[in-house]
Design goal:
Blueprint (H helix, E strand, L loop, with lengths): L5 H8 L1 E6 L4 E6 L3 E5 L2 E8 L4 H8 L2 E6 L4 H7 L9 H4 L4 E4 L2 E4 L4 E12 L8 H7 L7 E12 L4
Antiparallel strand pairs: 1-2, 1-5, 3-4, 4-9, 5-8, 6-7, 8-9
The structure holds flavin mononucleotide.
The site of flavin mononucleotide has 20 residues, from β2, β4 and α2.
Amino acid sequence: MKAYNFPNMLEKEWMLITAGSDQKVNTMTAGWGGFGILWGKPCVFIFIRPQRYTYEFTERENYFSLNFFENEKKMLSYLGTVSGRDEEKIANANLNIEFQHNTPYFREAKVNILCKKIYRDILREENFLFPEIHQKWYPKKDYHIVYIGEILEIVEGGKE
Ligand SMILES: Cc1cc2nc3c(=O)[nH]c(=O)nc-3n(C[C@H](O)[C@H](O)[C@H](O)COP(=O)(O)O)c2cc1C
């Protein structure tokens, strides 16, 4: 398998966060996240605001995936401005859902990281060490929920 520079890909091309079951799957664009090692496991770190529809899925489900594309910023802008509450975003973006390890991901993505949710927490006002960051990003106090996912598998895809 190719060695992927995920932080670089996230910065340049963004990613999708996808979660759900065979009943319903939702996805949204994310520009923030991390990749590393925690508790001896390869992990990802993602941040979701509570008003996102995707939040309902990441709360309910035990798994999620991160999906990376190339030259698809128009599609990711759509998936990152419209809510799955209002439109069938996945169908409108012509994405096909696959499942592995109970985790939904996209056939068309260049690469998918399949993750098991192992920790969640919510950012708290009292823990910000620099008030300017708090003021800039949380004037509405809609603190991100941070999820740590253990990487189960990396699945390569791409349009045939
Ligand atoms: C480039 C970009 C990066 C984003 N990054 C995040 C993020 O890291 N966390 C987050 O909660 N929302 C982020 N968003 C906003 C969500 O993608 C957006 O609100 C989306 O419409 C939510 O869809 P949903 O309601 O179907 O979950 C980002 C949007 C864009 C365009």
